[in-house]
Amino acid sequence: MCPEGERSQREQLQDLSVFERLDGDPRKTSPGLAIKKFCRTISSKNVQALDVRPLPILEETLTYLLSFLDSTDHDFEVTHDFIFDRTRSIRQDLVMQNIVNHRAIVMYEKMVKFHVISHLKLRHCGNTPSILSMHYLNMEQLIKTLTSLYSLYDANRDSTSFYKNEAEFRSLYVLLHLNPTSRVTVDPYSIVVMNHFPLRHPCIKC
Q1: Considering only Cβ atoms within 10 Å of each terminal Cβ, which end of the chain, N or C, has fewer?
Q2: Predicted confidence band at 204 (pLDDT cuts at 50, 70, 90)?
Q3: In terms of Cα–Cα distance, which of 106, 70, 73 is closest to 90?
């Protein structure tokens, strides 16, 4: 799930998440634990073929990442930070390979749900500057992931048909653009979480 070169470099730099450490050692990991990190400076022109994960590996990696969502071994902000970065890397690999099929749609739907659930859970993690920053970045990536999902729906549309979950995810656009001066007193994302996936995180894995 992580290129060998990156894995070796991160071991040397002790740049391993707590979820990637072999027996808790910050200097050791394994092919089954290390997951490719998001890289802002990566270019499809310079990347090596071995550094880009094929679709089946990306699907497997996403399922593995989301299995940590209900983990109580660490504070949620630690879990969120790990999944947040590694799902960005998954999206990056999908884009570099121009994967825009139905399987990509399913993956994007799961990643949108991750960001929505994170929004609710982060609200219970306090109001420290670091948590507020996580809130902001999570919302930013929610919007980007949702926008990409809408593009995938449109690119794969057959005549006037709609995808099974499309209406649910289109409704998120409405909630994102609720008039801030309206008299809505309930957090819109709480509504989404409670109505569509209330504490049923296994729905992300289906």
Answers
A1: C
A2: very low
A3: 106
